[in-house]
Amino acid sequence: MLYGIFQGISYFLMIVRYVLLAYCLLSWILPPYHKVMQVLARFVDPVLFPIRRLMYRIFPRIPIDLSALFAFFVIQILSSLLWRLYVMLL
């Protein structure tokens, strides 16, 4: 039962990671008003918005948006901590 919960959370984080990757790669090809980009943005923006807000407070004059890169790091850390918590609970 506990394994299923942790596995479900892990799958969700993996899906978020893949959608974020697709969003980043397609942003180089498609314009932001394209239907596919709008659908992906609805899923990715709640993840990226807090990171963007924090980054712009820390680095107000940074000319490039690195929020997706930091989101990947945060998701990877969360995934790692999730499985360490699972091992500790066994």
Keyword list:
90 residues; mainly alpha
What's the structural blueprint in terms of helices and strands?
Blueprint: H1 2-27, H2 35-58, H3 67-89
What does the model show?
With 90 residues, the protein is mainly α. It is built from 3 helices and no strands. The protein has helices at residues 2-27, 35-58, 67-89.
Order of helices and strands: HHH
Give Rg in angstroms. Answer: 15 Å
The number of helical segments is 3
What is the strand tally? 0
Largest sheet at a glance?
none
Describe what is shown at a glance:
This protein has 90 residues and is an all-alpha fold. It has helices at 2-27, 35-58, 67-89.
